[in-house]
Design a protein that fits this description.
Elements: H1 2-20, E1 23-24, E2 29-30, H2 33-75
Antiparallel strand pairs: 1-2
Helix pairs in contact: 1-2
């Protein structure tokens, strides 16, 4: 329901900008309906992209954990000293 309220709010603000002839500094003209739709879809696509990044973030964390285990094995001191002549 919150998403639908955000959609409605975005379209309402866009209609206010078009009706009140707010100045679009990027295009040097007043806002149009196309500008409102363009901004709306840019925000929606950006939000979907942020939602999809959670899967990659999970994989990144798993890789960090696996790397820590690998580096712990590499840095581990063996229990038998390697330079002890009695160890042979």
């Amino acid at each position: 329901m919150f998403i639908y309220f955000c959609y409605a709010y975005a379209f309402w603000i866009g209609s206010v900008y078009v009706e009140k002839q707010f100045w679009n500094h990027g295009k040097d003209r007043p806002y149009s309906g196309g500008d409102s739709i363009g901004v709306f879809f840019a925000v929606i696509i950006g939000l979907f992209s942020l939602a999809l990044i959670s899967n990659q973030f999970k994989a990144y964390i798993e890789c960090k954990v696996a790397a820590k285990f690998a580096f712990d094995v590499i840095d581990r001191k063996p229990p038998i000293p390697l330079d002890d002549p009695k160890a042979e």
